[in-house]
Amino acid sequence: MPTGRLSSTINVGGINMNSVVTKTDEGQIGQEVSFDAPDSGTLTTRTDDDTGVVTLSAGHGITTGTKVNVFWSGGERRGMDATVAGNDVTVDAGAGTAFPAQDTAVEVALIVQIDMDFDGDKLTMLAAMSETSNAHCVLLDDGASEALELDLVAGQAYTYYVDAAATTNPVAGDVIDDVYVSAAYGGSAGTCKLGVLYNSTNN
């Protein structure tokens, strides 16, 4: 039977605390994906709150049909549709804050999409970590709505496990269908790891 294990060492007030949590269940998913550094550019056209044109430098890695996150100082839009004409990238839809004023400096991060299907109500353990660069991770439900958004700091794992005293299931009531991973604002290229343990026989 698959096993999930979370280990941590904490020092507070000069006191060391070591913890190991072990859970077992029938189902497991593990993913490790690499993501590119964001491309810097300018919002040269602001059509409305969630539509505009970002002009990037030559050699950017965005292509038509991909999804991107757009970041700027004080805001972000996630999961936007990209249409590319040379260095001009039209971005549309997504979720997050309204676009800033035209000519604002922005960063565009290409999303890596992961097919990761599980019922959130059956979740036993969830862990996500980016080891070398800050990353952005969003779990989407089967209606393509955001179920959980994670801003991952390099080297710091996000963890949840069932029966944890101080946390509740972050995706309860959701059926997870996809995960979007990208570099974070001001980040660089890196690798994101995700692990899920779930009760696949719990009706």
Q: Please work out how many helical segments DSSP would assign.
A: 0
Count of spatially separate domains: 2
Task: Give the ordered list of helices and strands.
Answer: EEEEEEEEEEEEEEEEE
Structural class: mainly beta
Uncertain stretches of 5 or more adjacent residues: none
Architecture of the largest domain in CATH? Answer: Sandwich
Largest sheet: spatial strand order: 4-5-8-7-6-10
Mean pLDDT: 90
Number of beta strands: 17
CATH topology of the largest domain: Jelly Rolls
The CA-CA distance between the termini, in Å, is: 18 Å
Task: Write down the Rg.
Answer: 19 Å
Helix proportion: under 10%
- Biggest sheet overview: 6 strands, antiparallel, barrel
Outline: elongated
Tell me the fraction of residues in β-strands, as a range.
over 45%
Level-1 CATH class name of the largest domain? Mainly Beta
Summarize the structure in words.
With 203 residues, the protein is mainly β. The chain has two domains: 3-34 and 112-198, Jelly Rolls; 38-110, Thrombin, subunit H. The chain is 0% helix and 63% strand. The protein has no helices and 17 strands. The strands form four sheets. Strands 4-5-8-7-6-10 form a six-stranded antiparallel barrel. Strand 13 (135-141) and strand 14 form a beta hairpin. The mean pLDDT is 90.
Search tags:
203 residues, mainly beta, Jelly Rolls, Thrombin, subunit H, 4-stranded antiparallel sheet, 0% helix
